[in-house]
Amino acid sequence: MDVLGIGNAIVDVLFRTDDDTIRAHELPKGGMTLIDEAQAEKLYTEAGDTTERSGGSVANTIAVAAALGADAGYVGKVSDDRLGTSFTESIRSHGVHFTTPALSGSPATARCLVMVTADGERTMSTFLGACTALGPDDIEQDDVAGSKVSLIEGYLADTEQARATIGKVVDAASKSEARVGLTLSDAGCVERHREYFRELLRENVEILIADEDEVAALVGSDEITSLLRGHGGNAEVVVVTHGPKGSTVYDANGSVEEVGVRDADELVDTTGAGDAYAGGFLYGWTHGLDHATSGRIGAVAASHVVAQLGAQPPEKLREKVAAEVPGLT
């Protein structure tokens, strides 16, 4: 495979709402709150019309990479319930190889209730459920060794079992030519596990993709080069996204590439913008394209994702991106 993703398999349940509803549930607008199964069912019942899609940060990234033409796979845990079936059908519909055995019985499949307001902002409430059952036995070493890059979701650092899963990925990659990629998930996750992530980047991670707040929480905004091979880290490439200001790609050979943003034709929902960028960048990287072109693919892909409700790749994404990026092959 070109890209293998390992992360929390979550069904995104998206619905439109208003600020009053968010305040009534005492949720921080624009943030993510962990909830239990009872709270998840209550919000789901009150939601009314919903859109359900496979989700989770790395799952979104892998779906975009596959939609662009990458040979992509995903490892994540769902339960054998209705939402588990929904996740499986959704991610496979984009051409992603997904064969992780479902969990039998409790807990239920994870879901993220995404409340989208008129300004395009999304407020998320997440029940982790079955995705926390992901373990080392779910990792096929040949899949890792046979991929160009295995992308690990930072949220996996939250449990010891998932850290053991990361360890198996790292070990399998070290015995092959496969690269290990890491996405930091959010700044709060970095603050919880700063030393663990630093250790991974010193020893095991060749590709880091993160936003500027996550990197600042990890090493400070002025110390990004310390993550690169030859400067104290092991990374060959560090990609830092800056939201509407574009992105910067740092290479271990000393090059720094500034990549501009591609404004969306219409801003509908910012869910998954960074995930889509990562999927586009990794498509380019695994196909031998230069950093500027890879970043441009990511930026254009993200602009089309935010022009719709949800983080899934829109129809004919490859054709849309190819119309603006001549280097897409």
Low-confidence stretches: none
CATH third-tier fold name: UDP-N-acetylmuramoyl-L-alanine:D-glutamate ligase
CATH superfamily (homologous) name: Ribokinase
H/E order of the elements?
EEHEHEHEHEEEHEHEHHEHEEEHHH
Strand content: 15-25%
Written overview of the protein:
The model has no long low-confidence stretch (mean pLDDT 92). The longest helix has 15 residues, at 160-174. The protein has a single domain (3-322), classed as UDP-N-acetylmuramoyl-L-alanine:D-glutamate ligase. It has helices spanning 19-24, 37-47, 57-68, 82-92, 141-145, 160-174, 187-192, 194-203, 212-218, 273-286, 291-305, 317-322, and strands at 3-6, 10-16, 32-34, 51-55, 72-75, 97-98, 110-116, 122-127, 149-153, 179-183, 207-211, 237-241, 247-251, 256-259. Strands 6-5-1-9-10-11-12-13-14 form a 9-stranded mixed beta sheet. Helices cover 36% and strands 20% of the residues. The chain has 329 residues and is an alpha/beta fold. The radius of gyration is 18 Å and the shape is globular. It starts with a strand and ends in a 7-residue tail after the last helix.
In short:
The chain is α/β, with parallel strands linked by helices and 329 residues long. It has twelve helices and 14 strands.
Which helices and strands occur, and which strands form pairs?
Layout: E1 3-6, E2 10-16, H1 19-24, E3 32-34, H2 37-47, E4 51-55, H3 57-68, E5 72-75, H4 82-92, E6 97-98, E7 110-116, E8 122-127, H5 141-145, E9 149-153, H6 160-174, E10 179-183, H7 187-192, H8 194-203, E11 207-211, H9 212-218, E12 237-241, E13 247-251, E14 256-259, H10 273-286, H11 291-305, H12 317-322
Parallel strand pairs: 1-5, 1-9, 2-7, 3-8, 5-6, 9-10, 10-11, 11-12
Antiparallel strand pairs: 2-4, 7-8, 12-13, 13-14
Helix pairs in contact: 3-10, 10-11
